[in-house]
Every structure is written in structure tokens, then in C-alpha cells.
Amino acid sequence: MDVLTELTTTDFRPLDRRASELYLSAVAQVKPDALALPTPCADWTLHGLLRHQISQDQGFAAAARGEGDRLPAWNGGDLGDDPYAAARASADLVTRAFADVALDAELALPELGGRFPAALAISFHLVDLVVHAWDVAATLGVPWEPADDLVGAALNVAAIVPEESRGPGASFAPKLEPAGGASPGERLLTLLGREPSWR
């Protein structure tokens, strides 16, 4: 089975929920004075990165409800006074929305330039969470320890991220060359333009 067929026929919802917990475990360690710190995403402070993920959660939830073609649905993230509570609320929102969608339903993802089967869209959300969990962890200097199956699934998704969706303002940068003997997690990071040694 080729990678794209696997991604469009797999139910990623259980893995996506675990990816949410991985991400939220990193966000739970964010203190208010850390929000202005730079992150591995050159365009975003930690505040901007957290706001981006909340916006993504809300956008994917809207897409699962059949409302993804409304661009404002993808950029309304707000941290409020409690970034963790806001992140948890948006994670719960998208989890509920994904639970109600048929895996072969077509979801509008305007940031990616089209409509995609829900199974594939959920895999996109999963890779966002796994890698943004590293972004938060690297910013704070805390461990990032995703399970092997999360990394494996994210690697398959990362392999199909097109070059035109990478660059300034995007979630992912152009891919980097992994070091010899790189772990699967390090290969995932470099595939999505992250430098694993970033501090």
C-alpha cells in the first residue's frame, strides 16, 4: 500500500487525541513570562505559536462541520488569560468535531489550497500537534518524548508535505538534511524544517 492510500484509509483519531495530550503536556509548562520567547518557528514567539495552534484547532473543527472554507475560522485563536485552558478548550473542540465526521467526507482546508478526505485532514492535524509539541518543548528547554507510533505516523504525513506550503509564515520550513544516525524523531523534525539542536 502506498503512503497516500494508507493516509486516506486510516482512522487517525485515536492517535490525534494522543498527539493532543503530548502537545498539551508541553503547554502546561508554559509560564506567563515565557510567552515572549522566540521559538524554532522564526516568525512566531511562543505566544504566536500557541495562538496558531488554537486557530488550527478551530479551523479543523470548522472544516469537520462543513464550514472550513470560511477563512476567519482559521485565524481567530485567542489565548485569553490562561493559555493552557485555551489550548485545552480548542483541543476538546476539534476532538469532538473529528468524532462526528465520516472519514471519507471532503473537508475544506483553505490554508492547504483545497479539499481533502477527512482521514487525511486528521493526519495533517496530528503532525501539527506532534511537531508543535517539540516547538514548545524546545522553547522551554523541557523534554519532548512522543511515542514511537506517533512519530511513525507523523513521518508518513511529513513525507507528503509539498514544498509550496513551506516557508515564512507557514507551519513548516523547507526540509533539512538529517545528521547521520538521526533518530526517527530527529528525522521528523528535519523533514519539516526544524533543527533538532535548536535552543
UniProtKB/TrEMBL annotation:
Occurrences of domain Mycothiol-dependent maleylpyruvate isomerase metal-binding (ranges): 24-137
Pfam (any one): MDMPI_N
Chain residue ranges for the region called Disordered: 167-187
InterPro entries listed in its UniProt record: CHP03086 (IPR017520), DinB/YfiT-like (IPR034660), Maleyloyr_isom (IPR017517), MDMPI_metal-binding (IPR024344)
Gene3D superfamilies per UniProt: dinb family like domain
NCBIfam families (UniProt xref): maleylpyruvate isomerase family mycothiol-dependent enzyme, TIGR03086 family metal-binding protein
Protein name as catalogued: TIGR03086 family metal-binding protein
Source organism of the structure: Actinomadura chokoriensis
